[in-house]
Amino acid sequence: MIDLCMKFQIYQCNNCGNIQASTSKKTFKCFNCAKSIKILIKNKSGSNLKILFSTNDSSEAPFMVRELKRLKYEGKFFV
Ligand SMILES: [Zn+2]
Q: From the CA of 56, how far away is ligand 1's center (Å)?
């Protein structure tokens, strides 16, 4: 589920496709390619950066990042 009111957002980098959790809703800094992307929210579920998941749970955020990356590498994910 995607809810921008939640604490953690899981983003996908526009530049390299890296999946990463962040608490920021303003700027995304990719750990993989070091690109900074200013997050522009268009509406409740839309933005210029792909948001894959939202959570308030600090242990669920890294868990979901791992799961999404696993799905991506297994080719079961749309990215
Ligand atoms: Zn990147």
A: 23
